[in-house]
TrEMBL record:
Pfam families: Hus1. It comes from Mugilogobius chulae. This is Checkpoint protein. Belongs to the HUS1 family. It is found in: Nucleus. One of its GO terms (biological process) is mitotic intra-S DNA damage checkpoint signaling. One of its GO terms (cellular component) is site of double-strand break. Coiled coil: none annotated.
Length: 254
């Protein structure tokens, strides 16, 4: 197996760093799957134990100026590695002002990803600081609400309907709190959309820490964010950027 990639564009390197940093906030380990066209970061925990799932897909052409790989065989041309995203994020942050970054698969005691940076000769102080991009206002509002609800209960109920309404609810012996969101957009439901009762609320009870973890960690700066609910089963969160698709699954708790 062989892999070698090179990023020259500074904006692409910074964007790649933000994606990896977001993933590092969501999981300690995951599987990195390399194919000739894409990179996938995959997490699949045991749902029976309250585990979450994640699927992040990156088109390599949108980040890498050079990308070469050889899988196990021509019929199985892919490489899978278990990685610690936090380690990747640390490596990338130390080279964020690099003129170019090379990533390659090496083997020491075990297969490793090696990062080699071509740093500028000028001092780092002469370069503008990277402007960090945060959650858009609507998502920031949602994060603030979840942060406050976490202090009241370990669990919350997320419910939404096809009429653009979403509620966050906490109900304990001591307090009941509901935050209402209205006039949210709804993606097309397909040919049978007219047959759906737009007022019916789908509802999922969640571990509040799982949702807070997702909202706190994301730095993808999406152009669109989607939330799908499977009644009493799971919440499917999607962040879409021009060249990044990040999906996160949070199972319901009893």
């Amino acid at each position: 197996m062989k892999f070698r990639g090179k990023i020259i564009d500074v904006a692409c390197l910074n964007h790649f760093t933000r994606v990896i940093t977001t993933i590092s906030k969501l999981t300690k380990t995951c599987v990195l799957r390399l194919t000739p066209d894409n990179l996938f970061f995959i997490l699949s925990e045991k749902v029976a134990n309250g585990g979450v799932s994640m699927w992040c897909e990156l088109a390599q052409a949108n980040f890498f100026d050079e990308f070469q790989m050889e899988g196990v065989s021509e019929d199985d041309n892919e490489i899978c590695l278990e990685v610690a995203p936090e380690n990747l994020a640390r490596a990338l942050k130390t080279v964020q002002n690099a003129k170019a970054l090379k990533v390659k698969l090496t083997k020491k005691h075990c297969p490793c990803l090696t990062f080699a940076a071509d740093l500028p000769t000028l001092s780092r102080a002469s370069y503008a600081r990277l402007r960090r991009q945060y959650l858009p206002p609507s998502a920031q509002t949602l994060k603030n609400v979840v942060d406050r609800m976490k202090n009241l209960s370990n669990f919350l109920v997320l419910e939404a309907n096809m009429n653009g309404e979403m509620n966050l609810k906490i109900d304990t012996d001591l307090v009941s709190v509901t935050t209402h969101f209205k006039d949210l957009g709804n993606p097309p439901w397909g040919d049978d959309g007219s047959q759906k009762d737009c007022e019916v609320l789908a509802q999922v009870r969640l571990d509040v820490r799982r949702l807070q973890q997702f909202l706190t960690g994301q730095q993808v700066n999406p152009t669109k964010a989607l939330c799908n609910l499977v009644h009493h089963r799971l919440v499917h969160l999607i962040l879409l950027h021009e060249d990044v698709s990040l999906q996160y699954f949070i199972p319901a708790v009893a």
